[in-house]
């Protein structure tokens, strides 16, 4: 799902960059492209990674989740750090961390080394991504120029997610899976050099504290819960290996809430969740993300492990899906003005849920036209239609000064929901796969994951119907 941008004006004094506007946009959009690309680019390479490093079926999800969990947990902290220490400095730091971690992952010889590298990549992405948008909003004056810059940033982010499967397929097919990470190194180094030369530093005038404990606690709690869910598949729900990390994760998340309630400058101000628009929209986004995020993961495994697609064929097969999610994202603002944000969010989720239920009928004899194309387009189109109206509802009840923060919370909720959803659905799929053998069991397991995903999405739809407010502010801005 493409990133969601908040277009609130930032009340601060900043030095304008002397670099040409097009160059500033090129640099920050290149950084954002790398961040979003790495969420999806590894999906097609997963079977090759498994063969090369001896990963287990459940271990594959941590190649994705290690990145997503740290990205989600540190995203709000990254935005706060950019305000305090300077947008250019944090941009350079995040991109450097991301680039070095990409090199480490490409050189990994053991599964834990690759997972560790993906974890560090996620931290770098969380530091880098908020800085890219803030640099744009402080480099372009309010009005058409800034609106165009944010629209370009959003389109580049959507494009990064959309082409990830194709890029991953080409690199894995003609080079190796290591190149899906190694490609970040020359591109990152080039952007780093450009940022050091051309970007001008800016920061928020008022000093604010950095809530590092909050970021560490929420990330650690989420990782422990995800790990506990995974352990239930091999050891059962009553086993100590599952219950202990689950309990520890819940305790850590409770500690996070306690820290946030007392912090003078909390990472996640809990008072915002008193607003119906904020808590209902974030709840709906967690469930929607839990269902939709895993679509590419299971489709990549199905077309390669069951249907026998080569990595390039798998990447090419996802082009209609990618175009559908971009189309949904682009037409969502216009449809919001006609239908209202709540109606559109529900309609998009219904479309996606129907696609998931259809995809859940996959079997070992599936074909591209009969099994992949139709349900894939519905799932992706629905995902594109859903994200923007939910974000609009979340920000509609917040004060102008909180618009950026609430938009960040929505992105964080989507990533956290995706991480937990991948853990749950991978465990569900693995339980069915281990009950059988061969491609038939794989197809049954992946199909069951989509069926359960459609039920999770139905829960999100029910929450939207009951809890989402309907108000004029829900309409998209012109």
Automatic annotation (TrEMBL):
Residues 24-472 form the Major facilitator superfamily (MFS) profile domain. CDD domains: MFS_MMR_MDR_like. The chain crosses the membrane at residues 21-46, 58-78, 90-108, 150-171, 177-200, 212-230, 242-259, 280-302, 339-360, 372-395, 416-433, 445-468. It is a multi-pass membrane protein. Keywords: Antibiotic resistance, Cell membrane, Membrane, Transmembrane, Transmembrane helix, Transport. InterPro entries: EmrB-like, MFS, MFS_dom, MFS_trans_sf, Sugar_transporter_CS. Gene3D superfamilies: MFS general substrate transporter like domains, Multidrug resistance protein D. It is found in: Cell membrane. This is DHA2 family efflux MFS transporter permease subunit. It comes from Streptomyces decoyicus.
């Amino acid at each position: 799902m493409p990133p969601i941008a908040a277009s609130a004006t930032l009340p601060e004094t900043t030095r304008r960059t002397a670099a040409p506007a097009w160059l500033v946009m090129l640099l920050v959009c290149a950084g954002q492209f790398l961040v979003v690309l790495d969420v999806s680019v590894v999906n097609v390479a997963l079977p090759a990674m498994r063969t090369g490093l001896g990963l287990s079926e459940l271990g594959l999800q941590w190649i994705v989740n290690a990145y997503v969990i740290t990205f989600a947990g540190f995203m709000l902290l990254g935005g706060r750090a950019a305000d305090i220490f300077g947008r250019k400095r944090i941009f350079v730091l995040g991109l450097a961390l991301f680039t070095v971690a990409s090199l480490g992952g490409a050189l990994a010889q053991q599964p834990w080394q690759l997972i560790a590298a993906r974890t560090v990549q996620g931290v770098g992405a969380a530091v880098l991504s908020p800085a890219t948008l803030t640099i744009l909003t402080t480099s372009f004056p309010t009005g058409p120029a800034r609106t165009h810059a944010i629209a370009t940033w959003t389109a580049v982010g959507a494009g990064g997610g959309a082409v990830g499967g194709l890029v991953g397929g080409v690199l894995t097919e003609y080079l190796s899976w290591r190149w899906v990470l190694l490609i970040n190194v020359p591109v990152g180094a080039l952007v780093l050099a450009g940022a050091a030369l051309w970007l001008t530093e800016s920061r928020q005038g008022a000093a604010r504290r950095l809530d590092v404990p909050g970021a560490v606690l929420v990330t650690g709690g989420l990782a422990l819960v995800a790990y506990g869910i995974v352990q239930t598949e091999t050891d059962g729900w009553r086993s100590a290996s599952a219950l202990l990390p689950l309990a520890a994760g819940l305790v850590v998340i409770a500690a996070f809430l306690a820290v946030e309630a007392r912090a003078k400058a909390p990472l996640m101000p809990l008072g915002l969740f008193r607003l119906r628009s904020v808590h209902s929209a974030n709840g709906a986004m967690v469930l929607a993300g839990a269902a939709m995020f895993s679509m590419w993961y299971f489709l990549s495994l199905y077309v390669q492990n069951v249907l026998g697609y080569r990595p390039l064929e798998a990447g090419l097969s996802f082009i209609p899906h990618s175009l559908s999610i971009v189309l949904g994202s682009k037409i969502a603002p216009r449809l919001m003005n006609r239908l209202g944000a709540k109606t559109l969010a529900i309609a998009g989720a219904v479309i996606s849920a129907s696609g998931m239920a259809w995809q859940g009928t996959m079997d070992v004899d599936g074909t591209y036209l009969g099994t992949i194309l139709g349900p894939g387009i519905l799932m992706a189109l629905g995902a594109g239609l859903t994200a923007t109206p939910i974000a609009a509802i979340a920000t509609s009840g917040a004060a102008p000064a909180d618009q950026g923060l609430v938009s960040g919370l929505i992105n964080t909720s989507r990533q956290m929901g995706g991480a937990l959803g991948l853990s749950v659905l991978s465990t569900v799929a693995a339980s069915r796969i281990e009950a059988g053998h061969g491609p038939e069991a794989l197809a049954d397991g992946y199909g069951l994951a989509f069926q359960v995903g459609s039920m999770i999405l139905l829960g999100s739809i029910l929450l939207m119907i009951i809890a989402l407010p309907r108000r004029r502010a829900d309409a998209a801005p012109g």
